[in-house]
Amino acid sequence: MTVVEQTWLTKFDERDCPKWPQAQADYYRQAGYWQGITFGEMLKNQARQLPHHEALVAGKERWTYQLFDQKVDQLVRGFHQLGIQDRDVVVVQLPNINEFFAVCFALFRLGAIPVMALPAHRRIEIRYFCQFTQAKAYIIADKYFGFDYCQLAREIKAEVSSLKQVIVVGEPQEFTALSDLYLEAEANDILATLTNPNASHTALLQVSGGTTGLPKLIPRTHDDYLYSVKVSAEICGVNSHSIYLCSLPVAHNFPLSSPGTLGVFYAGGKVVLMQDTTPEAAFSLIEQEQITIAALVPPTTLLWLEAAKKTTYDLSSLQILQVGGAKFSAEAAKQVKPVLGCQLQQVFGMAEGLVNYTRLTDNEEICNHTQGKPMSPADEIRVVDEEGNPVLPGEVGQLQTRGPYTICGYYKAPQHNTKAFTTDGFYCTGDEVKLTESGYLMVVGRIKDQINRGGEKIAAEEVENQLLAHPAVHDVALVAMPDDILGEASCAFVICHADQPTKVMVLKRFLRERGLASYKIPDRIEFVDSFPKTAVGKVNKKALRCLTNTIKNI
Ligand code: J2J
User: pTM here?
Assistant: First the structure.
């Protein structure tokens, strides 16, 4: 095989990403939802308009829009020199540091596609992302919370032949240091020859919470993602005076786009990144940086509510606290205003697209009891029964949606797409909801086989498959169990082979050593002789979920 063919083989192909039907796409363009602007251009515009305005703060690092934009251009040169080009996939696994954004925007400008891996991902997830996308590069921090990512990169590189480059923030060992890739312009500057990527093409691949054995990748285009970011910023009142605290992992869809860091850049505001997720660290930053808006998952919100009652930090700059990612109880919601002195905004979103917000003008009843309403007038939602027929108004059913920023299919997953999307292009969210008379959604449950561990999603089947790989395990079923802080934790019911009993610690260590992200390792493992079955003979997970209550109470 020639080198040219090999290069072609590893390129990202838009045909692997199902797209909106032509008529719908035309409409979204004509109506002005899709503006044909790329993320690279968006940042360039801000750098021109607000050069000296601070864009990004992390620890002692403070980048103005001008510096941010310069760093991005420098990295474009460095990445280009390394051989990263238009349509190359790059797995990015970075913590909450400024470099995450320099990297992503440089890739956007090159037309390369970042996969938004989370710092918690380990060998199983990263190897899969690299292999599945034929990624050309993997970008990491040397160490984070004691974990050695260079060692992980070494293992992945040995297994994935497409992976040509490992780029490291910090001590690079045998790999390339990101700091060496910030290159100044020379004669024949590559920037002058680059063509702006097509805004209707995939800008990034988000990672789905998943319901199947392997996580699915979500292709988001510049057009659709930027539209969602823009409307989100408008709804949340984000402007050039906004100061956003980002304590959730930056790559996650919520802090990235709802309106998240990208929404703040879109509006010319300032992003403050933090890694220490304790309430004290957050409160100190709120006071110091005069934070106006923050986004949290419910478990962290509960910790903030507790800590705020005793804190001496001044939190008065905080105007909006967004809570989303998992169901936030109305009881906790009611405390936000009196305890933290700011407005609660509930956010019910998904990396596949649709995001619902309670509005800043909504009354407390709506803000405390609902998960908001779709952000765009072009979002179409319907609530259906098991046969796919609309339920009566106010009744519980599955939420389906389509619209200008909801994907029409996962990346390279034609078979799964026929199940996850209806024939008329609606995404089946797997969420059970109720629509109020005023058009707000209340999330009441889930039909997808997933555990929502305080906002972190676990596909039951993925963990079950990993456990089944242990020689002592005959069968396994993973279900959610109630948890006071997380909302849900995970419990694995395991049937061992008759002659091979094993221990909880052995199975947990097995999963860790296989390289499964630690949040997916079951919080509890129970050994049983058999599973309750449904009338048709399937494992009755509902009954198992009830059983976790009994276990908990023993
Ligand atoms: C109940 N369940 C919720 C909520 C998400 C903004 C906010 C969150 C996400 C996100 C996101 C919920 N109440 N308020 O991408 O842009 C559950 C639902 C949903 C799934 C999506 C965003 N908010 N959920 O959490 O892709 O089950 O996105 O389908 O990680 O989280 O998970 P994810």
Answer: 0.96
